[in-house]
Specification:
This protein is an alpha/beta fold. Helices cover 45% and strands 19% of the residues. It has 12 helices and 10 strands. The strands form 2 sheets. Strands 2-1-3-10-4 form a 5-stranded mixed beta sheet, with helices on both faces. A 5-stranded mixed beta sheet has the order 7-6-8-5-9. Helix 2 links the parallel strand 1 and strand 2. The longest helix has 33 residues.
């Protein structure tokens, strides 16, 4: 009887230890699965491509949570200076992150990740047959571009229109989006007959099915060299470092290529 009682006590202690271990694991497991959360501020031309990159990153880093806010590169730079809670900043113009880096607001060097292109796009006509000079024809209606004051794609659109000699002829018919995604929406909604948008947006299956596009000669504007930084706010954030490294991974680069971006050499991008 005494032996049976000792066995019972031993069994009870084992069960208690096991339940305690399971309780500790239950407390620790959610924290391990949660990983770290990061917020990206990204130029609107990356909307479709970066969504795919984030999904691919999530498959290999399931513990990390990535939120992306899309908008104007220039406005994001101003917001970061004002303390906006962004961990990485992807700009359509590499000049903006370089300025932030020079101001001590970056926790990494500025890294080039792509070169963008601008196109003429319409969902109501075959824009593949259009040239910039054709925009001078009032019959085309209003023309959408991004705001040149803070949107790199808008600035390049203005440069191209000036180089083509039609800027003065089209100014009165211009409608300006806050960023390049809103510019495309103006055309989609019928508020503009044609727009100058990012090739990366025109190649999205939804937009590609709605109309044609014509690539604008890159010699007519300053190159759209794009770059990103880890912000000073994210110094020491391991998830931010992981995502920055993933942007150099072939999986991410393949997605960017598919959306029409030219890519820097892998070695240069990693510098």
């Amino acid at each position: 009887m005494k032996l049976e009682l000792n066995q019972f006590k031993t069994l009870a202690r084992c069960l208690f230890c096991l339940s305690l271990l399971l309780a500790v694991q239950a407390l620790l497991l959610p924290a391990a699965q949660a990983g770290e959360r990061i917020t990206l501020a990204a130029a609107a031309d990356l909307k479709f491509a970066l969504d795919e990159v984030v999904a691919s990153f999530g498959r290999t880093h399931p513990g990390d949570r990535v939120e992306v806010v899309y908008g104007s590169s220039g406005k994001f730079a101003t917001q970061i200076r004002q303390g906006a809670p962004f961990d990485l900043y992807f700009s359509a113009d590499i000049a903006y992150p370089r300025e932030l880096e020079a101001e001590g607001l970056a926790a990494s060097p500025t890294r080039p990740y792509a070169v963008g292109r601008i196109v003429l796009w319409s969902n109501s006509r075959d824009a593949s047959r259009l040239r910039l000079q054709d925009l001078a024809d009032p019959a085309l209606g209003r023309i959408a571009i991004a705001n040149p004051r803070h949107a790199p794609y808008g600035k390049r659109a203005e440069e191209a229109l000036r180089a083509a000699g039609v800027w003065d002829a089209v100014q009165a018919r211009l409608v300006q989006g806050e960023n390049i995604a809103q510019t495309a929406q103006f055309v989609q909604s019928g508020n503009a007959g044609v727009g100058i948008i990012a090739l990366s947006l025109a190649l999205n299956p939804t937009l590609a099915q709605q109309g044609g596009h014509a690539l604008i000669d890159a010699a007519l504007h300053t190159p759209l060299e794009q770059g990103f930084i880890i912000t000073r706010r994210a110094a020491g954030n391991a998830a931010a470092v992981r995502f920055a490294a993933f942007m150099q991974d072939e999986a991410a680069r393949a997605i960017l290529r598919r959306y029409g971006f030219a890519l820097p050499e892998a070695g240069r991008a990693a510098q």
